[in-house]
Specification:
Blueprint: E1 3-6, E2 9-12, H1 35-45, H2 51-62, E3 65-71, E4 74-79, E5 87-93, H3 98-110, H4 112-119, H5 127-133, E6 146-150, H6 160-175, H7 178-183, H8 188-209, E7 254-255, E8 258-259, H9 260-270
Antiparallel strand pairs: 1-2, 3-4, 4-5, 5-6, 7-8
Length: 275
């Protein structure tokens, strides 16, 4: 027998080693290279799991997790323990509703920097603030917001098998931050398509209110204008750093399959006034 019971808790035998399991990239110290994966780990550690996290971290580094899959609301892992049959772990979180995602998408599209970061495959540093402004949380704040279970006989939740799954989940967030959003109910392509469509609507609305594009006023561009003929607009309005790129909308300049304007926009948004 690989394990036996003592009192109310099982006592485990020797763990069955795995040759081709999923191994954590981190070999020592903390797991999680980006702020968003560390944020998830910090939430887990705040639950006071103690030694179970340490044992789970060792399992993650030894490659005891055989598989890990993520879908809306649910993460499922197979973890090899001391029994021949791997244990099945499940970590569930409530996904946002369709109406909540509509509010999130409009809020993200309304922030040029947020949209540009996401379109570039990055997670905006203060995206949690945006979610909070909508009365939502991207990361769970309490253990009650996560539902965890494992097929092992350990009655403690999370057990080391669940902890190992959590650590590898955090590293998967390092590789693809969109998995956090997919877990909450919106996949990468669907979200980016929505942001592109919404950003296009915003730019079109702004373009109708701003000056006509240069291609429409070449004949008068160099003519001297009188003070009364110049529309200065709202002197308190903020000037978008990427506004000049709106002139490229509709111009068929591409690099590979991407438009030049979309490729340049993150760089323009990163510029500070006076650069």
């Amino acid at each position: 027998m690989s394990e036996h019971w003592s009192g109310d808790r099982p006592r485990y035998g020797k763990t069955i080693k795995v040759d081709n399991g999923l191994k954590a990239t981190s070999k020592r110290g903390d797991i999680g290279a980006t702020w968003w994966s560390r944020r998830f780990i910090e939430v887990l550690e705040s639950f006071g799991m103690g030694g179970r996290l340490t044992r789970g971290r060792n399992y993650a580094r030894q490659g005891q997790v055989l598989s890990l899959s993520l879908s809306t609301s649910m993460v499922i892992g197979l973890v090899q323990g001391s029994r021949p049959t791997p244990y099945k772990t499940r970590i569930a979180i409530k996904s946002f509703t369709g109406q909540e995602w509509q509010r999130i998408e409009h809020a993200l599209a309304g922030k040029a920097l947020y949209a540009a970061k996401l379109l570039a495959g990055e997670m905006p540093a203060d995206i949690e603030t945006l979610f909070a402004s909508l009365g939502l949380r991207l990361f769970p704040a309490t253990q009650r917001e996560l539902t965890m279970d494992c097929s092992c006989p350990d009655w403690e939740v999370p057990c080391k098998h669940l902890a190992a799954t959590c650590y590898l989940l955090a590293e998967s967030f390092d590789k693809d931050p969109f998995e956090i959003l997919a877990w909450r109910g919106r996949g990468r392509e669907e979200l980016l398509d929505r942001l592109r469509a919404l950003r296009g609507t915003v730019r079109s609305a702004v373009a109708r209110e701003e000056a006509p594009p240069l291609t429409r006023c070449l004949d008068t561009f160099w003519q001297k204008q009188t003070a009364t003929s110049i529309n200065l607009g709202d002197p308190t309005a903020a000037v978008r750093a990427d506004a000049v790129l709106d002139q490229l909308d509709g111009v068929p300049i591409t690099v590979g399959r991407s438009s030049l304007a979309d490729l340049l926009r993150p760089a323009y948004l990163a510029l500070k006034p006076g650069d």
